[in-house]
Amino acid sequence: MRSITAICLGLLSAVLAMSGCDRFGGGGDSGICLAVAHPAERELPAKVKTIAVMQFTSATPESKPQAIMASDMLSSKLNETIGAMGSNRCRIVDRNNLKDLLKESDLADAGITESKAAQAGAKAGADTVIVGSIQVLSRDEQGTKSEPGFDIATRSPTMKTVSTLRRTAQVSINFKMCDVGTADTLMSKSCSKNADTGAVKVEANFLTGGGTSSMKSADAMIRELAADCVSQFCGLIAAHVECHMLPLVAGKTSRAKAAKAIAESGDYAEAAKAFDEVVQANPEDHAAAYDLGVVRMFLNDAAGAKRSLDKAVRMKDDKRYIKARALLTRAMESGNAVLRPASEQERAECESRLSSKKH
User: Fold this and answer.
1) What does pLDDT average to in each consecutive run of 10 residues of the chain (359 residues)?
2) Are residues 192 and 301 both part of a single domain?
3) Are residues 282 and 226 in the same domain?
4) What is the CATH number of the domain that holds 230?
5) Could you give the CA distance from residue 136 to residue 221 in angstroms, rounded to a whole number?
């Protein structure tokens, strides 16, 4: 007797055959959105009720704007993450009120210490303060590279030299949470993030301030790296969710494409059965093995997902397979992470972030 999965596959295969398979295939699919829910790494001490985020110090006067940005970023992120723990759990002192009350910029210029921060926090009505220091590095490296061309007049291939620009950035932040009453350190974390565009082709006059390029600005790179550091620190004290768009590959067979359609409909349990049948019928189908691993992640079946993704990577050294396996490995190493489908809101936020990174 045919299984429900087989019947679904047969019906969907017929639809796919009539539609030319364009509806469910192609590299233009954005993918399905996976949420990785992480519990807090450390429990926030019960005595912490009100937190004041002091302005961070910077290694150089030129990076003071980034120090202010990171402080504001952390205050906003804490409001978001700690707020999710319960409205009565903890309060974050409003940064604008804190600046007005303490004239914080003057303190930062003088180099605020933990003891000074504790005194300032007490005046702001906080029982805990967070201080930090930031170091920002960025560099543009100009270069050239040769690329093939074609001379229409001589109808012969040529080589031409084009301008390139490689942009790198690094953000390092040291965070420290201190008790206002004792100035003792309750917890601390150091985080460093890097970004590298690689050598990107640009118009020659772009290097002198003209022309256009899709290359991300140094400020945008630094902001994203700082946000990553802030999120990492917040993960110490509050549960948080990461969202990732994972593409489904679906091999060339109609059965694999039909299984992909089931997954895209959100029925991951049935999709796992469908992909498993495809893999059983075609053991060398690396794409189906990868897709099976992905849908198993959505079912929080980390062990099963790992087996499938390991198999896919062994058969083909595909960047998508490697990235998905690395994501799963990180989730498994964190200990108590839960894998699940992202909510509509989480998916929308993920797509918005991805869109902003492209620009």
Assistant:
1) 41 34 38 89 83 90 92 90 64 80 54 76 90 94 87 86 91 95 90 91 65 78 94 83 89 87 95 96 94 97 96 94 93 87 88 66
2) no
3) no
4) 3.40.50
5) 11
